[in-house]
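Moderator note: this is an archived Q&A kept for reference. The question asked for a predicted structure of one protein chain; the sequence and the answer are reproduced below.
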Amino acid sequence: MANKKVVVLPGDDAAPEAMAATMDVLRALELPIDFIEFPPGEKWVRGETDKQARDAIDASDTTLFGSTSGKTTSIMYLRWGKQTYANVRPAKWSPGYRSPMAHPEGIDFVIVRENLEDLYLGLEGPLQELAPLKLKSRILRGPLDTSERGIYAIKVITERNTRRVAEFGCQLALKRKRAGGKGKLTCTSKYNMLRDADGFFRQIVEETAAKYPDIKYEQFIVDDFARRIVASPQELDVVVMPNLYGDILSDAAAGTIGGLGLAPSGCFGDGYAYFESVHGTAPDIMGKGIINPTATMLSAAMMLDYLGLTGAANRFEDAVRKVYAAGRSLTVDQGGSTKTSEFARAVIANL
């Protein structure tokens, strides 16, 4: 069989250091993969590198991405160009993770964030632009005052994208149930106040879940759900939510297990997926060699599973978790003093 083709975009600031450590482990696995590697964002040539990256992405099976502060521009193409509508963000505690929770044992849930719309379409502008629409507020029971100096932002929820992400969440809940999980789907949004937009999201997810009698279904208002992430995270399984809430609450979920340095993710569409850490570029520690590569490594393990290399994915993830269980080679954010490259060597020793 032909080798898989994987585009590697190391990202910006400290992210390339985490990517370099991850690539060390991937190469040690000796996989049937051809890696097409691009430079860090600091060396990105706008226009020329953009086109090269888009062409490489189109010719690849998947992409492994670091994280960007805006220098690596292909993230926009990976999301909207490839229509990767489901952002999967697992929160799974392992022994050795420095969780602030008194009892983090059993935390193992996944946030499935709608990835293409909501407020992230960037539809913003001066409030006066809305004057010709003569909008009426359901809350104020009267017309919107557009005479004040201010800014508007438009929230968009479509049936197509909501139904796609709901189907993805149901399928993931079934997959986890077959592997011994709870088989439960939770929907959350602010449907008590945003009755039309978030209420529509809830309605579509509810209708979709009704077609899956083998999974349990529940729904919570998003502020109540935020409390549940802290109070009872062990009760959660697969959680579907709109874009903005998913971006914010997945960071809270990472906090329950020990921080953003431990949080992987994958963005899935019907014909393509890419994988990246949840955390940002950490410019304050750039060049110090201390960034935690765990999130990038676990994202790479998710990528291997997506490529059908499940055995290698399990070896990679198990090796990372063995390093934490041993507790001798932990990075600064996890209470240790191990450098990024040394952490990679410890993972390789446990493959």
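Archived answer notes: The mean pLDDT is 96.
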